[in-house]
Design a protein that fits this description.
A: mainly alpha, MetI-like fold, two-stranded antiparallel ribbon, B: about 325 residues, alpha+beta, Rossmann fold, OB fold (Dihydrolipoamide Acetyltransferase, E2P), five-stranded antiparallel β-sheet, 9 helices, 18 strands, about 30% strand, globular
């Protein structure tokens, strides 16, 4: 208690700083904690507004509710297992062999990370749907049914294997190949060296990648909405349909809570247990030459695998680009510019809205993230642990839950925000601050506190220290955080779909609407526009920021920091 | 086991910006090196960083393939033998202790692979841990060990295989100065007691001198000179070897036109007036190092570095003193 008081007194000796810290607390309470609390509360009320557990009781009575939980879990676990296998093979190939054009393959592998998370769902519809290029035109199957488990899992693997790849690449890079040399040096053959050294050492990373993909797959909204179909209900889409279709907010909230529990569990295991178990064994000078771990035969197999996956990426994106300039996909393959004309005609406002929201939210989110990182690393005050947890919470909370929380929390004065631009911007700001916090904390922990002390010693107050010393030092991390947050804001769907309105719409929602009404060509055209904007933004920031902070490496760095 | 290295060349395709600018696509890390190591000998590869010594060691271990040349273990050519079948175990610079295994599991790693009966493994672990003074740490994790203890685990893991050849890749470079001196004495004692043929890589000339039967000095991929420590110090074949091992003065020989090398301790000074020999200079720096007094003396055509044993019988020469200079004839080496 004494210590707390002393900390408080110290904090208030710098009034501006104390005011800012209090502001951060208030903002996190309103825009992170309140929505979550609203969802919890709503799930515990019945339709007449009284406290009750009847929504949860329904799980046991209604088959489709039970099966949506079961379907989400089984497809999530399947996706995670296969994604990790693919990600491991790809990461192993890029870190342990002399594969040519490594950089090219790396960029290709992470392309799905910068696309809207349901781009692959669109490709799959066009390749394997009832009128799919492969199923109907090449294999001649009539009315092939891609919907359900196989469609969702296939699409999610394509979307999330790159996430597993990025995590595992970081893990394998931090394991020194000298350890494999040492194993072979005392008599291990290649297989034994891999099974007894490389594999057990990367196991915590593998488990971590598994949980990260599981969290993402459980919260995934776009792929299930396009590919689950009516006979394969899943939690995130079912919650959405309860709210927008049946206007049953309490049941929707209860489904969201059911989704929240496995996600939070996975997040806690990943962050507080696995991260401490990871081995980092890079010491001294790296040996630049190729490892003897991979035999010629194994190298050929890995190369074949990498080549196949790359072809798949080309195929998936090629189909989207082709569909964007095709009259009616599946029936009439003649060239047309109509889709783009339609997209720009109907959707120009949407394109502007999307850019506006992303451009407003990203810098605020980045600055706020850095500031929170600064106060987490450098200040001590009561409630710091709670502040850190709250600010990181949005990593694990599925967007569906956040979206429902926002419509519940901000639907009446004094916080009547529904239908405004502000609700979209605020949602994105608080959804992506963890990115800024993570990279900020990582950089700040490496800065010697005496640098700050020197500045204070020369007369700077704490806020000036943050502005003049810390910000310039963390600038590279800050900018790479911006790229990542911008990409995420441009491609997000799960929370945003609850918050768009007739006045303010987003590209991702627009794409899903077009898919829903069967205009695949227009959806493809919107997707192309979106990917072009994202690539242009990455390119512009890379050009403005020297070094490796901008560009594609930002995606790599940020992903690594945010997940592992 | 006798080791023969015959005309070994190792070329890398260079990716560095420096080499690309110079348009050199191929970088020759090891350039036509040949030597032999006799049974039971410890030979050191000594040279500045980037001279190819570690690459050469890694080729002997089997982690790199030579571009050309032969590596013979006894009379067997091992170029195409994979690293796990060479029977030449290595102590790595980074120790390369398996972080997920205990001390005991680390040391037993190689024997477990051979599927030896557990009692024999236990006996050999006990023997080798006693040998490297590591007893009692069996169940520790590598993260709980000090640098010196990790070093001993790495040594035990290599020794337990009873190798025909023991390889050391700068094993002491991560230890502090005191421990480094102790470890190098221990390693040399152990190597002589067990009589294991050994090749040792270092960039530290004191380490090389104190531990080796023979030292090989390398520079820019080439073998400059091989010989016992005393021979390298007293009879270096060129300027590089002379200045890499110890300190050296180079003087022009007015008679032959050759360069003469003389070590700082082979230069004798006396205050002018006590001795009159014609060759004299003035002291420009006088440094008191304790056991040794170091001077810089400027003559009319050279600056000489001089070491004098501290005799405590008279005060050191001061800056500005005029001194006569005498070079010990047995300490003069003619350079090419």
């Amino acid at each position: 208690m004494r210590k707390r008081l002393r900390e408080l007194r110290l904090l208030f000796s710098d009034p501006l700083l104390a005011f800012l810290v209090a502001g951060v607390f208030a903002a996190l309470a309103v825009f992170v904690a309140l929505p979550l609390f609203s969802v919890l509360l709503k799930s515990l009320t019945n339709e007449s507004g009284d406290l009750s557990i009847e929504n949860y009781a329904r799980f046991f009575n209604f088959r489709y509710l039970r099966s949506s939980l079961w379907n989400s879990l089984t497809s999530g676990v399947t996706t995670a297992v296969i994604s990790v296998a693919i990600g491991y093979a790809a990461a192993f190939t890029l870190t342990r062999t002399n594969l040519p054009y490594k950089r090219f393959f790396h960029v290709l592998f992470i392309l799905p990370v910068i696309s809207p998370p349901f781009t692959s769902a669109l490709s799959i519809l066009m390749l394997f749907g009832a009128n799919g290029m492969i199923t109907k035109w090449i294999l001649g199957i009539q009315n092939f049914n891609i919907y359900g488990f196989k469609g969702v899992v296939l699409s999610q693997i394509f979307t999330f294997a790159p996430v597993a790849y990025l995590t595992l690449k970081g893990v394998l890079e931090s394991l020194s190949p000298t350890l494999e040399d040492a194993a072979m040096n005392v008599g291990a053959n290649r297989m034994q060296a891999f099974l007894r050294v490389t594999w057990p050492l990367s196991l915590p990373g593998v488990a971590s990648a598994f949980l990260v993909v599981l969290i993402e797959a459980l919260s995934d909204f776009g792929n299930p909405l396009v590919l689950a179909g009516s006979r394969f209900p899943m939690l995130s889409t079912q919650a959405y349909l309860e709210i927008t279709g049946s206007f049953n907010l309490p049941l929707g909230a209860a489904l969201a809570v059911a989704l929240l529990i496995p996600s939070i569990t996975a997040f806690v295991i990943q962050r507080y247990y696995l991260q401490k178990k990871q081995y980092v064994t890079i010491t001294g000078k790296p040996t630049a030459t190729a490892s003897k771990l991979v035999s010629v035969g194994a190298y050929r197999a890995l190369f074949l695998f990498v080549a196949c996956f790359s072809l798949l990426v080309f195929l998936f994106y090629g189909v989207i680009a082709a569909a964007a300039v095709t009259r009616v996909w599946g029936y009439d393959f003649t060239f047309t510019a109509d889709n783009f004309a339609y997209a720009f005609g109907v959707g120009f406002g949407t394109i502007l809205d999307t850019l506006l929201v992303a451009l407003l939210a990203t810098p605020v989110s980045g600055l706020l993230g850095m500031f929170i990182a600064f106060i987490i690393v450098r200040l001590s005050f009561p409630g710091k642990g709670i502040l850190e947890l709250t600010s990181l919470l949005n990593f694990a909370v599925p967007g569906t839950v956040v979206g429902i929380g926002y419509i519940l929390a901000f639907n009446r004065p004094p916080l009547l925000l529904i239908g405004t631009l502000a609700i979209l911007v605020l949602n994105f700001i608080f959804r992506y601050i963890p990115v800024g916090i993570q990279s900020g904390v990582a950089v700040l922990r490496q800065i010697d506190p005496s640098i700050e002390e020197a500045a204070q010693n020369l007369g700077a107050d704490r806020v000036t220290v943050f502005r003049k010393i810390m910000l310039p030092i963390v600038a590279p991390a800050f900018f790479s955080g911006l790229v990542f947050a911008f990409v995420r804001a441009m491609t997000a769907i799960s929370a945003a779909i609850f918050l768009v309105s007739a006045k303010y719409n987003l590209l991702t929602v627009q794409i899903l609407n077009q898919v829903g009404s069967g205009r695949l060509g227009v959806a493809a055209a919107f997707s192309v526009i979106l990917v072009v904007i994202v690539l242009a933004a990455i390119w512009i920031i890379a050009a403005l920021v020297p070094g490796h902070a901008g560009g594609m490496s930002a995606i790599t760095i940020q992903n690594r920091e945010s997940v592992g | 086991m006798k080791i023969t290295i015959k005309n070994i060349v190792k070329e890398f395709e260079s990716y560095g910006a420096e080499e690309r600018r110079k348009q050199e696509k191929i970088f020759r890390a090891v350039d036509d090196v040949s030597f032999t190591v006799e049974e039971g000998e410890l030979v050191t590869l000594l040279g500045p960083s980037g001279c190819g010594k570690t690459t050469l060691l890694r080729m002997i271990a089997g982690f790199e393939d030579p571009t050309s040349g032969d590596i013979l273990f006894g009379s067997v050519r091992v170029n195409d033998t994979p690293p796990n079948l060479r029977g030449a175990t290595m102590v790595f610079q980074s120790y390369a202790i398996f972080p997920h295994l205990s001390v005991r599991e680390n040391v037993a790693f190689g024997l477990r692979l051979q599927k030896l009966p557990p009692p024999e493994i236990d006996a050999r672990i006990a023997k080798v841990t006693a040998l490297v003074e590591l007893s009692g740490l069996d169940d520790r994790r590598p993260s709980q060990l000090s640098g010196g203890q990790q070093q001993r685990v790495a040594l035990a893991r290599a020794l337990i295989m009873e190798p025909q050849l023991l390889l050391f890749d700068e094993p002491l470079s991560n230890l502090d100065a005191k421990l480094r001196e102790q470890m190098r004495i221990d390693i040399r004692k152990l190597q002589q007691r067990l009589g294991i043929t050994s090749i040792y890589v270092t960039h530290d000339q004191t380490e090389a001198m104190s531990i080796s039967d023979n030292v090989i000095v390398m520079n820019a991929g080439r073998l400059e000179q091989m010989g016992p420590p005393a021979e390298l110090y007293s009879r270096p074949v060129n300027r590089f070897v002379a200045s890499f091992i110890g300190k050296a003065n180079f003087l022009p020989d007015p008679e032959s036109g050759h360069t003469i090398m003389v070590r700082p301790e082979a230069v004798k000074l006396a205050l002018s007036g006590e001795q009159t020999d014609g060759f004299w200079g003035r002291v420009t720096r006088s440094t008191y190092l304790g056991g040794i007094l170091e001077y810089e003396v400027e003559t009319k055509d050279a600056a000489l570095l001089v070491h004098e044993q501290n005799s405590f019988e008279r005060p050191p020469f001061a800056v500005g003193d005029a001194v006569s200079i005498k070079l010990l004839p047995s300490g003069l080496v003619k350079m090419d």
